[in-house]
Design a protein that fits this description.
Largest sheet: 7 strands, mixed
Number of strands: 7
Number of helices: 7
Oligomer: single chain
Shape: globular
Order of helices and strands: HHHHEHHHEEEEEE
Radius of gyration: 18 Å
Strand order of the largest sheet: 2-1-7-6-5-4-3
Number of domains: 2
Structural class: alpha+beta
Amino acid sequence: MKKIAFFILIALSTCSIMWCGCSKKYIVGGQPEDVNMYKNTLTYDMLKGNPLFDTLLRVIDTAGLKDKINETGTTFFAPSDYSIYNYLYLRTIQDQNSNQYAQFGLDSLFYYLRNNINGTKDSLSMYLVHTPLTYNVLSSSGTAYPTALTDDTVVVSYEYTTNSLLGYSGYVSGRPQVVYFTQLWYPFTIGPSSPVDSIPINIGVRTLVTTSGITTQNGVVNVLESSHVLFFSGTKQ
């Protein structure tokens, strides 16, 4: 019964997040309506202005990373509240393998963050790149960048797509482009000729950026797809 109750809580929280996000009309295709509307706003405050990141801000505060994501010349790949609840769901399932009544909720996550259990606090730094990744510096083949997490590397690409769900239509002459955020598992890296769209799952995992190129006072914000799991938990093969 507790297990079912937890899943209902997650569903209700997710529905609330979805309603708030849609009512704001925050995501329009792959880019916000005006990528410069936050150019005089720090990254943290930009996130604070949207309910899609309410829980993320609590995670950032608990991890003490507010100043880091507000540093000049940074790009923050923001996991939405969906990603956090995906993580809580996964951790609950894992813990219930040994205890059917186990629950891993926000209180558990905050405890892990405060005490940096299993490097949880540090792991949030994997979403921060100390380079302002505007569209003009991105390429379809992708470029590897170190993140703020020690020994961590990601590949950021700006790829053409023929996926109709991502804005492609045969009625237009050009193909749209979308940003991908690819986490590479240490110690792997990729060469300049490696196809970024077919990185083996034992080397890295690709995540679509659903809202990209948001310019803030101190850098750039990209929002990761809602199916992403915080810390890429459970995706390493």
